[in-house]
Amino acid sequence: MIKVEFLGPIGKAPVEIEAKTLADVSAKLKEDETIAPWLGKCAVAVNDTMVKELDFALKSGDRVSILPPVCGG
């Protein structure tokens, strides 16, 4: 199982899903109408390391963080 956490204003509790790659995670998250609009704007980290490739391989116990854009000052 992969744990997916949603940071910042997304406001969704973490979920656990079966996934072999980030592409699998993306496909499953796109099914959720509350998360889908965020996906194109967010960065992704796996175990606290930023990742851009959707073919990135995941293993059981990995933590995927969905990081929305932020503004600061």
Overview of the molecule:
The chain contains two helices and five strands, in the order E-E-H-H-E-E-E. With 73 residues, it is α+β, with helices and mostly antiparallel strands. It has a single domain, classed as Ubiquitin-like (UB roll). The chain has a five-stranded mixed beta sheet with strand order 2-1-5-3-4, with no helix packed on it. The longest helix has 9 residues. The mean pLDDT is 93.
Architecture blueprint of SSEs:
Blueprint: E1 2-6, E2 15-17, H1 22-30, H2 36-39, E3 43-46, E4 49-51, E5 63-67
Parallel strand pairs: 1-5
Antiparallel strand pairs: 1-2, 3-4, 3-5
Order of helices and strands: EEHHEEE
* Number of self-contained structural domains: 1
CATH fold annotation: Ubiquitin-like (UB roll)
Total number of strands: 5
Q: Characterize the biggest β-sheet.
A: 5 strands, mixed
Number of helices: 2
Q: Architecture, according to CATH?
A: Roll
Main sheet: which strands, in order across? 2-1-5-3-4
Contiguous runs where pLDDT drops below 50 for at least 5 residues: none
Radius of gyration: 12 Å
Mean pLDDT: 93
Q: What is the top-level CATH class?
A: Alpha Beta
Question: CATH homologous superfamily - what is it?
Answer: Beta-grasp domain
- Distance from first to last alpha carbon: 38 Å
